[in-house]
Amino acid sequence: MPKSLLSIQGVSKNFAEIEALQGISLEIYSGEIVGLVGSNGAGKTTLLRLMAGVYKPTSGSVNLSNGQAVTSMRQELGVVPESTGLYSRLTAWENIRYHSRLHGAPDSLSWARTEKFAEHLDMKDSLSRHTKGFSRGMKQKTALLRALAHGPNILLLDEPTAGLDITSARTVRALVRQLRDEGGTVIYSTHQLAEAQQVCDRIVIIHNGEIRADGSPSALLQDTNTDTLEDAYVSLTQDQARTRQEEKDKESAFSGWWRRLFTPRTPNTTLEVIEDE
Amino acid sequence: MSEGSFMRVRAIAKKEVVEFTRDWRTIIAIIVIPLLMFPLLFILFPVLLESEAAELDALELSIIIQSDGLPDNLAENISLNGMQFSLEILPNLSSLSEPGNDLERVRNSSTDAVLRFESNDDVWGYAILHLSTSERSNEARNRILNVLSDWENSEIRERIDQGGLDVNATLDPLRWDGEISDADVATMGEQSGMILSLFIPLVLAIWTYSSAIQPSIDMTAGERERGTLEALLCLPCTRMELLLGKWLAVATITGVGVLLQICGLLFAIGYLASSSFIGVPQLSMVSIGLIVLSIMLFAIMVVAFELALAMRSHSVKEAGSILAPALMLILFPALFTQVINLDGIEGFWFAIPVVNILLALRELLMNRVITEHVIIWAVSSVIYASLAAYYASRQFNREDIVTSLS
Fold first, then answer.
1. Could you confirm whether domain B56-167 is CATH 3.40.190?
2. From the CA of B318, how many Å to the nearest CA of chain A?
3. What is the pLDDT of residues A205-215, one digit of tens each?
């Protein structure tokens, strides 16, 4: 029986009127790769931020299995956010070293680990370059190196292969599996089902702020009585995904009025456009 | 603060300073501009003015003199002052200042000015028609006025002499005996402190605020906009450490900027007026210590306030549109403080935010350490700095700072 690492109990997260997550309960075990799968705006990033302790739940709890707050495990945490978060006027190594130092890791350790993983990711020659000119893929790889440099036990990866070419994406997936094999735990957010199937031991499907399914890829197929994960996903998420517009509609009346005042009106019909012309 | 915490604050501050100074525009903003601003303003600007004045002096002007009898020595002096003139008969007008038919001649620059000169027994009347929007016409007017003034002085002296009076005794019956500077009992050091107290607090206040704007925005709203803050917030450093690190970085950058600007200012003053105008202010160790304390408290307050406002903003643009007009909160009190009379000043002035530190600096630069004032400004400044720091920490603890426009 794997050891429980993180316990999420009945968590809801609201932003003003918007319910980003509703009554989520999830148990994360040591040494597994958990894939958070969902459409844009499903609540994956919010859940990752709750796990990292950046957000506090509106209700419910996110704690370590020993009852401690998640922020107490940050020393062992490596995070790759969606936006990569690199400083363009620093070199790749300076970016990595900055985070490692804030983790309290000695430079020698972080350099040794960075060198090792940079070799895998074909980034060794780029470590001394400023990240300003980096492609999206190189930024993504640098962010991954930064998350790994201090030797974390838990990795939170938000769309880690976004922007990567096929070979690099494959290398990243192999790296993630290697970390799991070495005893690490990885929480992997993606909206690509094929990728989740390849990498993850367990898939959590999130839709409209709720967990719709939680289990191994084969268990999901069995439960939904489908042949592919794509079919399984569709059958679990048949209700329309929330859109930003719906969320915006929930904004306060004053805010809506103020925005409308300074926003040019868009015609409702094609006929209006033709008439205007 | 634990050793680990101190190391993290230092790492944050160091990274911020390194990253910020890697931009050449920043180097210009925090080193070149502060260093050169006052020397350029005080040295280069007067040089430009001088060259402009020399150009005007070299101009050969043409004027018309309308008179019913111009004294010979006056006509000669006008010629000697670079003005060619043609004489005309004085027109018949209700007053000499009325332009009459000469209006168009002056307006279309066919002449630079018209001098009307009329004799009435012992008293002469005159008027100068000129176009105030024309440099040539203004120059002609000024030269005519100088010539007339000299002529008037010699006329006065001649009349006094003709009346049998001593000219010098009549014109200057009360005279200062000896050197005026000998009679001032203030030492050179005190006088220097007095002069510096008119510049330093003002420069310090405005430049501290304005030079902290760019780094404050870059390190908060800039991070937010670029999406670098989220990764930072996942690290094992508290938000207070983050605030302290960023504060330290902004304060360092601002401190360098202010110091360089004061160096530039002192150099300009020293160059312009040589050593007789300004020297080293005579300050006790207590005054120096209190000056440092007051500047530190002011910097804590201003930088924390700016970091807080910038952190509230979702983007660099939004932060800029808040912080730039907020300069008025410093500018008006700073200007107002310059005109407050320090002799017998009431204690409450030293409790008003911004005004308190500026007044304290003025007093201390004149080496006046008044215990009551020191206690009031020190206590009130600690309160204001704490409030600003508390406000900043609240902003840094906001959950939504993780969200970015990008």
1. yes
2. 16
3. 999 899 998 98
